[in-house]
Amino acid sequence: MTFREDNIFKGYQSLEDWLFAQSDDSFPPYDHMNGEKSYPDKYKDMKNALIPIHKIVEKGALIKSISNWKKEIKDQIEKLEKDNSQSSNEELIKLKLLLQRDPAIYLNQHGVGHVDQVIKKVFELICYFKCGFPTPSEVFLLLCAIQAHDIGNIFGREGHERNSQRAMIDAIRPIISDTPTRILFLKIAQVHSGNINGDRDTISKLRANGKLFNKPIREPLLAALLRFGDELADDSSRADLKALDLGIISEESIIYHEYSKSLHAVSIEKNEINQTLYLSLEYYIDS
């Protein structure tokens, strides 16, 4: 890992390690006397509580895609059955045959392994900061957002970024009880993809000078780190290599796994001559 001498993250192996090393007065106040845990402990408990949900994210998206597709076909069949014309009967036969096909979308890895990789890539990005380093409160929110960002896939791929709260609210409410904190990191998580009223520039809608319990929070910065880190984490570790070898991934899904498989190295490199940073993507493709 490359650090500048004045980088406050120097000496730490990960963003999580840095968060756990921060003093209590770096975060918003909490009621220790009534058993409320510190912010690093809240993050740790949240991470552990979400592990069982992360493990079934891909399965949830798979099941939902099948269910949506079948309902769509069945609705069309129902309409055609009310119409006795020759053309309707021919279309009806085609749809019933189509219903026998399996359109399941089997996503590449979106669970715990992917979350850990996003955290790693975000830390690499922060290591190149020269100023404006994330504060402890911002790192807490960023890590919570990373944990939450893909978990909505359990209800299906479409609109997954908006379903994070629905997927995990019961698991995290006892851990992070205050609503403003939950709303804020979920808002950051929700703009990692998708659009707002058709505009894909979702990050610009966030507040650059927001606050959480009087702690300054730069929402666009945190969202940008998550979104960029998520893209950098799309490497070969996400592919189901065994399923690819066995040839059991459907035609509709294979592109996700083949792309991840081919992208075997993603790194941020520094040009020592002009001191600029560039993104290196290394692919290996079997022809």
Description:
The protein is mostly helical and 287 residues long. 48% of the residues lie in helices and 7% in strands. It has helices spanning 15-20, 39-54, 57-81, 86-98, 112-127, 136-148, 164-172, 179-190, 219-232, 241-246, 254-262; strands at 210-212, 215-217, 263-270, 277-283. It has a two-stranded antiparallel ribbon with strand order 1-2. A two-stranded antiparallel ribbon has the order 3-4. Strand 3 and strand 4 form a beta hairpin. Helix 2 (39-54) packs parallel to helix 6 (136-148), helix 5 crosses helix 9 and helix 6 (136-148) packs across helix 9 (219-232). The radius of gyration is 22 Å and the shape is globular. The chain starts with 14 loop residues before the first helix and ends with a strand. The model has no long low-confidence stretch (mean pLDDT 80).
Features:
two-stranded antiparallel sheet, two-stranded antiparallel ribbon, mainly alpha
How does the SSE layout of this entry go?
Layout: H1 15-20, H2 39-54, H3 57-81, H4 86-98, H5 112-127, H6 136-148, H7 164-172, H8 179-190, E1 210-212, E2 215-217, H9 219-232, H10 241-246, H11 254-262, E3 263-270, E4 277-283
Antiparallel strand pairs: 1-2, 3-4
Helix pairs in contact: 2-6, 2-7, 3-4, 5-9, 6-8, 6-9
